[in-house]
Amino acid sequence: xxxxxxxxxxxxxxxTNTVYQERLEKxxxxxxxxxxxxxPNADPKTYNLTLDIAYEDKSANPLTDSATISIPIRQxxxxxxxxxxxxxxxxxxxxxxxxxxxYNLGKSTLYNLKATIEGxxxxxxxxxxxxxxxxxASKTVELNIIAETPAGEEPIxxxxxxxxxxxxxEEMLRMQQADGLVSPDTGDITxxxxxxxxxxxxxxxxxxxxxxxxxxxPSLPVSxxxxxxxxxxxxxxxxxxxxxxxxxxxxFSFTMMAQTYYEDxxxxxxxxxxxxxxxxxxFPWLYVGIGGGVxxxxxxxxxxxxSVRRKKLLQDExx
Length: 319
Fold this sequence. Notes:
Immunoglobulin-like, 14% helix, 5-stranded antiparallel sheet
């Protein structure tokens, strides 16, 4: 019995592709083992092996038979991820751009490349889809990160030093501390969605994670939301030519400023601070007016002097 591949991609170890069995009795079977190796540069796909069998019957008549075996070949998946680049620190609730390069260092094509964001209090504004990646190719993943306030935390309100009913900000802070609404040490709001006290800046929802809208995943990078430090990871998924899915992760961190609101005394409601209106450059009428006035005075002085000279000449002629 001999074995061969159509294009010599699969070869026997040791150089021989033939085995010999002197006799095979009736109603018996025999096993033959071939140790094979695949060419290192073989494309990942299914290859065919042909087995040719030659034998004789009891009368020494030559007989032949053949069979085909299909063998799927896979190349090792090798993917490398750059460190994510955060374009700039942002404001809470606003998108923060993130970019990261992905490299296919293996010999197989990667299919259906996708990327998204994972993190406590973080989400992607929209997932990234990169399609297929040939061997030796690279792609740049671009995502926008949205940081969200944990459930139970209140926005920072600046009333300009005035609180309701004429109280100063310091007096209002003492009242909130007495009611247990504010941390006596830091002044941070420390109330969860159930009205229970928590450590300042670590509000994550109800008691022991049973209430509230936020669920902390301990397997994700840890964020220090109280100080505006967010951490997460980019999740990359792709498939090989047989549909098997692979996943890669890359961690990142960045600083996010809390959104500040200002209390409107007329309505008693927090409003977003308005952007200062820059005065628009226009025609410099003030300087034109001043220049025109000076010019008018000079003209009047010249006319008066001319009149005085003319009168003096007339008097001299009469004499």
